């Protein structure tokens, strides 16, 4: 039995002792944590104290509770999936994306009408409450089981200028980009990535462990005069995926030599 003799609430002392065992490798990554009864015997404390300690470690992200299986030490391995964020264009004008064939749609796309928020309005350079077409997809990588939430947002004014977009707002992004180029736009893209804690519906849909952030990617397609045309969002668990980019140098005009 390990003697608990530290300042602070008793459950915090137990949590600190378990944390040390995890960080030292005694409790290995991805291995089951000892049962409640074993932890009670090891530290000489009550069941509520052990449960509070486990809850604290779950909140820290050190422990993952798997329903029906118990508590496990969070894995420190490599992400299950690398998502490449490149866009290529074929000789016949089609767009392709490296992970385009990887994802399977878990259900039918959901199309709807919505309005810009402060965040989406800023990306599209529109005021709040401007009308948008939205399309949501739930994607699954069949090899790893990684789930992702995908969303496309198209302003009404863009869809009106490209009629097929208004008739088929559920088109996949590569088809949306093809239609925009057919309309005369020379496209380029900007993208931001941020980590944040998930909303309850995101946590449930993505089946995230406790205390797991998501990666929220927002890609904006720009057209004529650099005008933002479409937003493409992707949300995926930060414990499951990493994001990879190909970076090339921008061309700059040569500086004139001073006489």
TrEMBL record:
**Stored CDD domains:** WHTH_GntR
Keyword Transcription listed? The answer is yes
Span of domain HTH gntR-type: 8-76
- A Pfam family name for this chain? UTRA
The family database entries (SUPFAM superfamilies) matched by this protein are listed as:
Chorismate lyase-like (SSF64288), Winged helix' DNA-binding domain (SSF46785)
Q: Keywords assigned by UniProt?
A: DNA-binding, Transcription, Transcription regulation
Against PANTHER family, the record matches this protein to:
GNTR-FAMILY TRANSCRIPTIONAL REGULATOR (PTHR44846:SF17), MANNOSYL-D-GLYCERATE TRANSPORT/METABOLISM SYSTEM REPRESSOR MNGR-RELATED (PTHR44846)
The name this protein carries in UniProt is GntR family transcriptional regulator
Q: Which organism is it from?
A: Streptomyces anandii
